[in-house]
Hints:
- By secondary structure, the chain is of the alpha+beta class.
- 22% of the residues lie in helices and 31% in strands.
- Residues 532-598 are annotated as: Disordered.
Amino acid sequence: MRHGPFGRRKETILCSSDKTDMNRHHYSLFVHGCRFIFLLRQDPSGEKKYKPAEFHWKLTQVCDEEWHHYVLNVEIPRVTLYVDGVSHEPFSVTEEYPLHPSRIETQLVVGACWQEYSGVESDNETEPVPVAPAGCWTFPSGGDLHMTQFFRGDLAGLTIRSGKLTDKKVIDCLYTCKEGLDLQVPEDGGRGVKVQANPGRSVLTVEAEDVGELEKALQHVTYLNSRQFPTPGVRRLRLTSTARCFNEAACALVPPVDGSVMVLQPEEPKISLSGVHHFARAASEFESSEGVFLFPELRIISTVTREVEPNGEGDEDPTVQESLVSEEIVHDLDTCEVTVEGEELNPEQESLEVDMARLQHKGIEVSRSDLGVVFTGVDTMASYEEALHLLRYRNWNSRSLLDRKFKLVCSELNGRYISNEFQVEVNVIHTASPMEHASHMAAQPQFVHPEHRSFVDLSGHNLANPHPFAVVPSTATVVIVVCVSFLVFMIILGVFRIRAAHQRTMRDQDTGKESEMDWDDSALTITVNPMETYEDQHSEEEEEEEEEEESEDGEEEDDVTSAESESSEEEEEGGEHGDQQPANRQQQLEWDDSTLSY
C-alpha cells in the first residue's frame, strides 16, 4: 500500500457493514491520518461484557508516500501487524460489546464503506454515490445507503485468508527479496560511517564525514543473491552522491554513476520421479475403507549436470575434453499434480483420498476434483514424497472396473522446472464365482449332465473378462477343436499324397532311361572265325616288307632335307595307320559264313 498525508479523514481500505436497515460495521480496516486502525466487532454471545474491538497503530510508513507491505494476523484477543516484515504491536486497544444477533446480510466493499447517509458527512467530503438507476435506496430507518469514506491511496493487492495465520517465514518470503545490496564495514576502518538499508535491501545509504572513509566503505558494497536458482539477467545499479560543504556558499554537484551486474544462467535441476509403474490388486482392496495406495514406492530426486575441467592443459592437448558430471541436490517443490487418464472420476463410485491428519504439520495443501488431486505449498522433496505416499484410490463398485491410469507431475518455482511424467496403471483382479459359470444353465436343469463338476479356485489370477457370460461353453470348445484338428489332418494328408505321387513319377522316368541303354541279346549267336588267326599273320608279314622298301628308298634320296624326310615319314606313318585300322575293322566285322548252310 502507498498512502500520503491527506488530512485527518477516515479512508477505508476494507469494510464489511450491514446491507440494509442498520448501519453497523462488522469489521473494517482504515487509515485515519497517519494511524492504521483495525475494527472487529465480535459475533453475538451469551456473555455481556466488553471485548477488544478496535486496534490502533501509529506509523510513519502510513503517510510517507512510499510502497510498504502490510500483513495483519488476527487471533483474538491478539492482533499483530507486520510492516515490511517487521512486527508492530498496537499502542491502543478499544473494547466494545459484541454485536446483537440479527439476520441482516452484510456488504463487503474494498476502497470505501457502505453505510447510511443522513445528510451530514463529518469525516468525508466526498459526495454520496447512488447505486440504483432511480437514485439512492431508501429504507424505513430514514437514511439513504451509499458509498462513503473513500480511500485516497494505492493498493497493489489485497488477500483475505480465513482459518489460518500466515507464518513469519512466509511473510519474510513475501516482502523480502533474496537478492539485494549489503555492506560489511571492516573492523579496522569505518569510523564515523553510517549505513542504512530499506527492508528489501534494494537501496543502501552510506554516510561519512570523511571522503576517504566513505570511499573505503563503498569498496565493500556487495550484491547478494541467495536464491538457489537465481533468475539470469542484468541488474542495473546507480550510485548517487551528495556532498555537504561547511563554510561555503555552494558545493560541487557529483554526477550519478550507472553500472550493472550480470547474473549468469544457473545450472538447471532435473527433477526425476521413479517407482512402480504397474501393479494389480484384488477388487476387495479397492472396495475397502483403506483403498489402494497409488505411489507406495515413489522416489523424488533432483540432479544437476556440471562441466568438470580436465586435469591436464586442455589448450595444448586437443584430445582432452571437458566431462559432464551429474550431482544430486536437495531443494523445495511447490506443486505436485495427480491427474486421471481417460474418463474423469465418478464421485458416485470412486474417489482419491488423502489422510489430512498426517499433513497438518506440513506446508502442503490438498485440493481435489473429478480430474485428480493437486498438492500445493513450498516444502521439501521428502515432505512431498510422504504426502504422495498417503494418496489412495477407492472404488466401491469395482465389478465393472478393469484398470485405471494416473499421471503425476511435480514442479518447482511456479512451473519453471518440471519433472518427468510418472504414469501408474492399476489393474483390478476379479475372483471368479462358481455360480457365475453355471448361471446360463440354471433355467433349464433338464439339460444339465448328472456327472459331478469340480470348480477351480481362481482367486489371485487376473481374468481377461470378469463378466459371467464371457466364459465359452465346453461343448462349443470341443467342436471347435475337432474341426480345426480335422482340417489340419486333411492338409497334411493332401501334402503327403502329392509328395508320394511325385516320387513315383521320378522313379518311372529313371527306369525308362536305364532300359534304353541295355542290349537285347536274347536272339544273338556269337561264332568264332577260324580264319582270323591266319589273316593276322599274313598282315604282319606285309608290314615288314613295306618297312624294308621304305628304308632303301630313303638312302638313295640324299638331296632331301632332314625336315622333309621327317614330315614324309610322319605322313607315311599316318597313312599306314589309317590304312591298317580300316583293314582290321573290316576283318573284325566280316561274317564267317563257312559254317552257314544255304
